[in-house]
Design goal:
By secondary structure, the chain is α/β, with parallel strands linked by helices. The chain has 15 helices and 19 strands. It is about 35% helix and about 20% strand. The strands form six sheets. The chain has a five-stranded parallel sheet with strand order 9-2-1-13-19, with helices on one face. The structure holds flavin-adenine dinucleotide. Flavin-adenine dinucleotide binds next to helix 1, strand 14, helix 14 and helix 15.
Length: about 450
């Protein structure tokens, strides 16, 4: 008799999502998490009465995208209370002014380029042949519409926001899928309670269906017998049996460390080794004595040569002004902060290598860039907390990347690693396998795809 039908390693959005779906189908499910908190990169912690995301989050499609679909599948539609980014909607900060997208960009982009950009946005809604786009970059797609520098800067910033990858590497197919679904759903927002509300809702789903959650337990090994999964061994030596193991620990960690290279063919190991990850991020969580903005979400940027800027960033060079992604969580949910206070979170992409040597400069420049957006920042500052690439690596592993595998040419659509790894009973979920979308939505879509693959392959389990 097996201990469990399914063992899941890791409580990120992918792990908790797939666990909730499979447990709701009656499968005896165990989820094991090495940290003493759940959620991986989509987690929230408390400091002096403020609830802070470990990263910096805003959610593209909320209840209408895969994050909501997982809840529909487990009949817990209302388990997350989303607040949409409306009244005021998102703003862009460029040349010391706030801009509404897309209408007001008209004032700064030459007329013909603006109408061509709008045409691109309209065309993406109709594009169907993703195979043709799979081997094209977002930049080459854009170049069919405009060569204006500001338009290119703007689309590159969109690509960095969505994928943390520059637009000349991003696959046009993924860019089109994400842009069109975001426009169609028009439901960007943030959950009450902080980003941890998402994995918490899925965990609630697992428990509701009789599943078991163990935190503070690290899986040391996925045990293979006769070329098939037999269970897992914990760090404390305990063996737990199951014929299906789903890893949320990342493809490299799963293949190389948890299973072991000897169980895979050389060319597969080489493929895994060649995969590229999205880069990392620095986030500042800024606690303020009183509200200094009513915006829910601001993105700041300056005119740039995208390729030069990204190459310089990879070398660890700190620019004079950084591009910032700035959700204001307490404007979505005032209960995230003590009464009358405000929380602003700001994130900027940084390299994993070369970050530490300029750590202080990155933080100083990011704070200055944030103060440029909100001039009342320092006089209302109580304190700020920082998360660096090292913190992201400690929480989620996966090369300290923001998303997981980079959504670049040759790594999206059918070229993405399959959730079904080449060992019987071994699956992967989250930012490193299957699915499409932005960040957590990619992980949730991967959970849906992974659950469907398993349920089709093992119908007798239901
Ligand atoms: C700074 C930052 C900003 C972001 N901004 C956004 C945003 O605005 N919008 C958005 O949608 N997404 C955003 N993301 C991305 C999003 O958070 C991630 O893509 C998503 O949360 C990844 O989920 P995952 O399923 O891949 O799991 P992960 O979050 O990677 O979790 C994996 C879990 O597995 C556990 N684990 C690993 N190994 C073991 C083991 N051996 N035993 C037990 N447990 C193990 C880890 O502890 C971890 O909890 C951001 C991420 C960061 C870091």
């Amino acid at each position: 008799m097996l201990d469990f039908d399914i063992i899941i390693i890791g409580s990120g959005v992918g792990g908790t999502g797939v666990g909730a779906i499979l447990a709701s189908k009656g499968l005896k499910t165990l989820l094991i998490e090495k940290n003493d908190f759940i959620g991986g990169r989509c987690s929230t912690y408390e400091k002096e009465g403020f609830k802070l995301d470990v990263g910096v989050h805003n959610f593209g499609r909320t209840s209408r995208g895969p994050l909501g679909k997982v809840l529909n599948m487990i009949e817990m539609q209302d388990a997350i209370d989303w607040v949409l980014c409306r009244n005021p909607g998102p703003r862009w900060f460029y040349q010391d002014k706030f801009w509404k997208f897309p209408r007001e960009l008209k004032e700064i982009i030459p007329e013909s380029d603006f109408s061509n950009l709008m045409k691109l946005f309209k065309d993406v809604m109709k594009m169907k042949n993703f195979n043709d786009l799979e081997r094209k970059s977002a930049r080459s797609l854009l170049s069919q519409y405009s060569e204006n520098n500001l338009v290119h800067t703007f689309v590159n910033i969109l690509s960095m926001l969505y994928f943390v990858v520059p637009y000349y590497e991003t696959s046009a197919s993924e860019f089109v899928r994400c842009l069109s679904s975001l426009s169609r759903d028009f439901s960007m927002g943030y959950p009450k309670g902080g980003c941890i509300s998402i994995p918490s809702a899925y965990i609630q789903g697992i428990k509701k269906s009789g599943g078991v959650i163990q935190t503070n337990q690290s899986v040391k090994k996925i045990v293979i017998e006769n070329d098939a999964v037999d269970g897992v061994e914990l760090e404390n030596g305990k063996f737990i049996s199951s014929k299906i193991v789903i890893s949320n620990a990342g493809i490299r960690e799963t293949v190389n460390d948890l299973v072991g290279k000897k169980y895979f063919k050389g060319d597969y190991l080489q493929e895994v080794d060649n995969l590229k990850y999205s880069i990392s991020a620095l986030t500042l969580k800024v606690a303020l004595k009183k509200p200094i903005t009513n915006f829910k979400m601001v993105t700041s940027f300056s005119l740039q040569d995208p390729e030069e800027t990204f190459n310089s960033l990879l070398k660890g060079k700190v620019p004079e002004e950084v591009f910032l992604f700035v959700p204001v969580p307490s404007n979505y949910d005032p209960n995230l902060v003590p009464k009358g206070k405000q929380l602003i979170i700001a994130g900027t992409p940084v390299p994993v290598e070369n970050f530490e040597k300029n750590r202080d400069k990155w933080i100083k420049t990011s704070l200055e860039s944030l103060e440029n957006i909100f001039p009342d920042l320092s006089k209302n500052l109580m304190w700020y907390d920082v998360s660096t690439p090292k913190d992201i690596a400690d929480i989620g592993g996966k090369e300290a990347s923001v998303i997981g595998l980079a959504q670049i040419i040759n790594q999206t659509g059918n070229y993405r690693p399959n959730p079904n790894l080449p060992i019987k009973g071994l699956y992967l979920v989250g930012g490193d396998a299957g699915g499409w979308g932005i960040g957590t939505e990619l992980a949730a879509k991967s959970a849906i795809d992974c659950s469907e693959t398993i349920l089709t392959k093992y119908p007798k389990l239901i």
